[in-house]
Write a structure and sequence with these properties.
Blueprint lengths: L12 E5 L4 H10 L4 E8 L5 H15 L2 E6 L10 H15 L5 E2 L4 H13 L9 E2 L2 E2 L7 H11 L15 H16 L3 H9 L4
Parallel strand pairs: 1-2, 1-4, 2-3, 4-6
Antiparallel strand pairs: 5-6
Helix pairs in contact: 1-5, 4-6, 4-7
Length: about 200
């Protein structure tokens, strides 16, 4: 059984955005078996960020993986969504390093959650496969399959405690809305998967 499903073809040399969490660590482990990888890590200057940076730095050093990092040095302006602000800062860093395609570890779960979020804001959309040099080839893979890969292959990762903080909209959708959405439509993942496959 193939746990990890990929879309598109990747060149030999790629960059991988790695936070230290299970999704990005599994994607790194999966891709470095057949690709020459460079890791990009962005420290958001939150309570967990330094621990995650130290973990990713140590892992890349131990594995001999090329590693580039940066750290957010400003705080989100009053009234701005911290999630949106951090995303902007993160992509500014990513856009500076566009010599190779940059692989992000977005999963089918992320696509479903994003579809729910954007639908509630009036314009439903799926996380796109490509944004400039950024690609998301794992949109057909469920998060649970990445977690299983981590277990089967002893892939280390760190867990950000803020993932359970429902004051962040992403977490509120994941922990509060998703169970109700799946109760209303148990086939939600299949529905979004069909839309994702249109990029094949």
């Amino acid at each position: 059984m193939t746990l990890i499903k990929m879309q598109g073809k990747l060149p030999r040399k790629i960059s991988v955005a790695v936070s230290g969490g299970v999704d990005s660590m599994v994607v790194l482990d999966f891709l470095r078996r057949n690709h020459h990888v460079q890791v990009l890590h962005y420290n958001h200057s939150t309570g967990h960020s330094d621990e995650a940076e130290a973990f990713v730095t140590r892992y890349c050093s131990d594995k001999g993986i090329s590693f580039l990092k940066d750290k957010c040095k400003v705080t989100a302006p009053l009234g701005r969504s911290r999630e949106c602000f951090w995303r902007e800062q993160r992509y500014k860093f990513f856009d500076k390093h566009n010599n190779y395609p940059l692989v992000m570890a977005h999963t089918l779960d992320d696509c479903v959650e994003n579809w729910i979020f954007t639908s509630l804001n009036g314009a439903s959309r799926i996380i796109p496969y490509r944004r400039n040099h950024v690609v998301r080839p794992f949109r057909k893979t469920r998060k649970r399959d990445l977690e299983l890969w981590a277990h089967m292959n002893n892939v280390p990762y760190v867990t950000d405690p803020s993932n359970n903080d429902i004051s962040f909209r992403r977490n509120y959708i994941r922990h509060k809305l998703m169970p109700h959405a799946l109760e209303v439509n148990p086939g939600l993942f299949k529905m979004i998967s069909k839309i994702v496959r249109q990029d094949d």
